[in-house]
Amino acid sequence: MQERELFAIFGNPVAHSLSPLMHNRAFSELGYPGCYGRYLLEEGERLREKFLALGLKGANITVPHKEHAFHACDELDDFARQVGAVNTICFKDGKLHGYNTDAPGFLRVVREMMPAGSVLFLGAGGTAQSSAVMLRDAGYEVTILNRSAPRLEYFLKEGFGAYTWEDFPGGAYDLVVNMSSAGLKDESLPAPEKLLRSILEKAGGAVDVIYGKKTPFLRLAQAMGIRTQDGRAMLLYQGVIAFDYFTQGRFEMPKIEEAMKGVFEL
Ligand code: NDP
Q1: CA within 20 to 30 Å of 93's CA: 72, 82, 202, 226, which one?
Q2: Ligand 1 test: best mutation among 60, 163, 176, 180, most atoms within 8 Å of CB?
């Protein structure tokens, strides 16, 4: 019997992740000898050690270890190096190679909604950083609004308009995105309701990167009659790109997507 290649997702928490289901379904439907599990990692500094001890061929990394994953790699692709966050690692020729598939996954979500325009991010964490750079490089105009100032430094250095709730000048945006973890484990909005309403009433659409629940942000946008989308498409698209790295381009992307999509229809 052919030996199986092992893959895993590292995170904390990790129990909720749909990645094992998505990748195992694609392995099974495409006939690839892979097996994908989950690993609750508390100390991010130990990622490299755990990856090697488990004998993995590849891994995904979720909150809060994407920066640790960046430091754990021997080689980085240009984009991952630029944004400092890795969510996909492949073991090749004795080395850990790091990639970021969140940002291209999110870019595809936005492209499907509009070919050009302005985007306001609510939140300034790792996902916002990589996605802002990718969207800007693709021609979108990106502005950041965050609860507090420290995380805005990166964006200001990169030349983005970046504000806290206190100094936000307002404006009309084609798309408003909850890029924060507000609503992930609680029922909070990513900004004060009055401020959010004033932003959403001029917005063309609203996206939440959180998946698996209808967040207070999406509920508010829907109640205001705005077109909305949750984080499932981003999850699917980043997973398809990661799978392509794991299997080194062996399968056509639409076939990978078709197989993974089944998980969301269960
Ligand atoms: P980080 O921990 O790096 O950043 C969190 C951000 O959220 C910070 O800007 C923080 O503000 C803000 N924030 C947290 N709580 C609140 C709150 N109650 N009100 C307002 N702002 C808040 O997270 P990531 O960037 O890694 O992830 C962000 C989200 O993206 C998560 O929900 C994650 O699940 C989701 N995600 C979804 C993916 C998908 O495939 N659909 C892929 C990757 C991520 P401050 O700076 O003030 O602390």
Answers
A1: 82
A2: 180
